[in-house]
């Protein structure tokens, strides 16, 4: 089974009378909001089709109280044939297919691991549609974005293959709220978020010759994107291009599919949780 990994970035909205709050009236934390949203059933539209997110409460452990689980499902038309003694006539019926989803709600993680099923669609697009529903939720206290984790070193491999001759590099990143370890680049982004109310920062670094990609600032940008906080693109001197969206991080698990038995599937998922939700 194949799982794709994403990170959520949540920016607090300006509080008003309608914003959801904790039972004691205090503001919801990011973890509170994630736990609240993913503990409920939600319908959402993805490419004009209706999908459903449904929480799964039959899996979990006291060792991982911050984890939440669920299914993203869609009703689909299945085409089959009747038995031979009934003429093998074409027939059709409706059934549901679902993919498994894991959410780490911790403030310094905010990770999602999502199963891939080609019949339901690409995980990134599905998650973006679910997040859109999340942002449209009445009283949502945060504006949420989702970005894929990127295969570590993929940009540096591209640069090395092209002699480190990079003519431009562009990025679109979220103002950070999910990492405890902060470098100078993240400090600048946080200052923009807190002082200017910035949610995203987009920029293009371009040279009249080639960029000095060994500079510490470039390394900070690349590392930030790899950890699931934005997107990165670049072009080499020979015209070859790199895009972080083509290097989404994924995990392959050699386990039986949940359609073959959920109890065993849940047990094996918990055994692999460190791979599915890396720190």
What does the model show?
This protein has 279 residues and is α+β, with helices and mostly antiparallel strands. It has 2 domains: 2-148 and 249-276, no CATH class; 154-246, no CATH class. 24% of the residues lie in helices and 34% in strands. The chain has 7 helices and 12 strands. The strands form 2 sheets. Strands 1, 2, 3, 4, 5, 6, 7 and 12 form an 8-stranded antiparallel beta sheet that branches. The longest helix has 14 residues, at 123-136. The two termini are 21 Å apart.
Outline of the structure:
It is built from 7 helices and 12 strands. It is α+β, with helices and mostly antiparallel strands and 279 residues long. It folds into 2 domains: 175 residues, no CATH class; 93 residues, no CATH class.
